[in-house]
Write a structure and sequence with these properties.
Layout: H1 2-21, H2 29-47, H3 61-64, H4 69-78, H5 94-106
Length: about 110
């Protein structure tokens, strides 16, 4: 029992430290432009250039509406090995990913 508790605390402490140090401010206008470009070019290579789906699922508001933000943020930050979804942690900050998720749910192409 003690081993399990210790292991869980070691596994969870980086995530807690990461979230505590993360700013929730919106990216600057210049960074927002770069994020949109990244979304359309890099994400679009798997999710379709119009984000209607391809190798990866559609990233349109109706496709994302029932998915909690924290699930989408986690998928973008940490990826999904079994689905060929790369991790963007270390390239994008949590606040940038949260901003991107909000844009996708609002309809970035609409």
């Amino acid at each position: 029992m003690l081993k399990t508790a210790l292991l869980l605390s070691l596994l969870l402490s980086p995530a807690v430290a990461y979230s505590e140090n993360e700013s929730s401010e919106a990216p600057s206008a210049e960074r927002q432009e770069a994020l949109i470009h990244l979304l359309k070019q890099d994400c679009g290579s798997c999710h379709g250039m119009t984000l209607k789906g391809g190798l990866g699922p559609a990233l349109l508001p109706q496709a994302l509406a029932d998915k909690p933000d924290y699930v989408l943020v986690g998928t973008i930050l940490y990826g999904r090995e079994t689905l060929a979804m790369p991790a963007w942690d270390g390239i994008l900050t949590k606040s940038e990913v949260e901003w991107l998720v909000a844009q996708l749910k609002e309809g970035i192409n609409e």
